[in-house]
Fold these 3 entries.
Entry 1:
Amino acid sequence: MAEFQDRVLKCMDCGTDFVFSAGEQQFYREKDFRNEPKRCRTCKNKRQSASTERGSHGGRVETTATCFQCGRETTVPFRPTQGRPVLCRDCFQDRKGGHSAPVPG
């Protein structure tokens, strides 16, 4: 860990200084993260909490749709694309496991 040294960064939300530790830098390198953190831990936690309250990551919405394979009504965590089949959880798991025929295209 000798190549890394603690660095002080400025939070883009609140403007306070925070430490980007040598250990965190090593973790970022191991995970091949390209950008260093932009927010202090407090602002990062606030942002993640707000995201969760909004409906999971980035404001994702639950959408009601009809399963292409079995015809049951289901909810999916995305907005379906026109012309692309939507599968319920059971049919998706079957297909993922390779138990079903391919979707006609």
Entry 2:
Amino acid sequence: MNWLLPEHLADALPQEAAQIETLRRRLLDLFRVRGFELVQPPMLEYLESLLTGAGQDLDLRTFKLADQLSGRTLGLRADMTPQAARIDAHLLNHQGVTRLCYCGSVLHTLPASLASSREPIQIGAELYGYAGVEADLEILRLLSASLERIQLKAYRVDLGHVGLFRALAKAAGVAPETEETLFNLLQGKDVPGLASLCAALPAPYGQALLDLAGLYGDAAVLDKARSLLPALPEVTAALDTLAQLIAAVPELPLSIDLSDLRGYHYHNGVVFAAYCPGYPAAVALGGRYDGAGRSFGRARPATGFSMDLRELARLVPPARQTGAILAPHVGHDARLAAHIAALRDQGEVVVELLPGEIACEGPRCDRKLVCLGEQWIIEAINED
């Protein structure tokens, strides 16, 4: 059965491929008019480049192979964000703000879920060189515009801040291995396990780390967090940032989840995840990851988000498909050839039947070209 593909890999057949391409064009056009420049990094890079700095969490998700030219280990990218950070830090070398976007396949050794592909088509936008909350706000507004452009409505966008957990863990003097355990317990909202571990930590930080697990909901959660968490400068700054974002983006259904540490080893500030009706996983993930370019020679503030076009294509209402026009074989008929060319220049799909072909197996043809006297005219195809 040579036609079978490996598990969690699939072809995109014409209808799905057309939907994916439509979404790609809409989103990249949106990014372009907002000043985000398209980059196209390679599928393969030296492994250490893909896994350095921001990419360390990707190790288990990255396919690895030997380079026959250099003898070094190569990696098939599992995420394009580290590549964009490399381009900003090492190749463009801009001193001010840089806005980049990208779109392409990435490969994962294991699927993110039972229904996920191991070859997502990742599209995203990244903003480099600005540390203020205004950059996070621009990215959130771009996310909002992106969902609107593809007619996908989010019912919830969770906001969190990795800086809260980092500040509390540091103040409590948590060892690295304990910090990793705390992270896993918080991410899984394992309150009994978290309570047991936090009981051994110094007050008030142990209790504060335990409180993070219950701090989720609407904007009122921020007031509750201010009353429960110690007033460390980092904690106050993080809560202020979240409050600014909620007030500034009323068009998004923002909520708070202070225990959502998604991408903890990668992000170091605001993080967010967008959810849509009828789909259990996040359709967009993003946040701040300052310093991602340090390993490439330049540590720069950075924030952005990405989405999987394959998943979006399942959720977005199908684009209206325009029927094609069936035309007879041109042969040496210059007038017919010119008429077909003019129709195609207008954006019409015209399928020219080959000699002996009586029907089109490809695009749905709802019209046909017929010769009426000296004129070629278009008639509807009666499907009865």
Entry 3:
Amino acid sequence: MIKVLIADFSISNLNIIKDILESDKNIQVVGTSSNGSELISRIKKAKPDAVLLDLNLPPTDGLETAKIIMQECPVPLIIMASKTDSDDEAITAKAKLFGALCIVEKPNQGDHADWQKNNLKFISTIKLMSEIRVVRRNPRFSVLGKKDEKNGLSDRVIPAIKQKVRLILIGASTGGPQALDKIIPQLPATFPVPIVIVQHITSGFTDGLVSWLKNISNINVKIATENTKVEKGCCYISPDGFHTEIDRNLRVRLSSSPPEHGSRPSVSYLFRSVQKEFGADVLAIILSGMGKDGAAELGLIREKGGITIAQDSNSSLIFGMPGEAIKLGSAGYILSAEEIGRFLCNIVV
């Protein structure tokens, strides 16, 4: 059962959002609040798996309240806002700065045409965010977008990628969303290579993952669909229940063949599908996760001359998959999640 606490200045909004969330049998609303001043004590008492926080929550605003929450009692935090505010890049950046995982559009009961569809998307996003591990935020930022000198990021020089790259593949499991949060938002809208991701995730959460990544990214994020040609500046997430492969024409092919390493989609299946056709033109990455899905197949890509990366142990929530890849000699580079994002930004095509 996922425990959620809702904070909104409007009692009617609280009731609407509570009804939406509790329409899912796996969600329990463990508390509500209409004032930021009392919210901290309610979080400490209820110990929710996620907090939904209105952007305009009095007495200050939701962002200031978010900053206090992440300093005193860190919890997966989602900001709710109007469509106009949720699309505002400055607000989104500040929310992320203060520790919010994402901004979601507040349910609008007047939009009857897409009411049910939007509610399901809203629910799946909350469920996904509840699984993400968060840490206490120190008030180390004095001006938006400016970090102090000890910001915790690696100062290692990340090399430019001198060989041609036509396709980027990423495999991840437990801890993958946290790693993707450090990687995908670094990429510019003009990113020159398509990205395909297999993320092991609970069934029904994929829409939430796509919505969240789209909200924090400059590139377009979408679910991979049969026969879609993958394009530069786009990131494709493998759908629930199907293996994903990319054919020689850069088109998506979905398969319901048996699971591999207990998973469908499988990282191994995706990696194996491209190593013959694309050879050295592939850049493949294994991120945090339990088990060994994709570890050996990463080595096949390396043998063909492709660029291969494993996430390092310090930035991995679970070091199983990347650790196995490193043990097999499959990884040409071992980098933190933040460094992987910088590495990808050095691609030259």
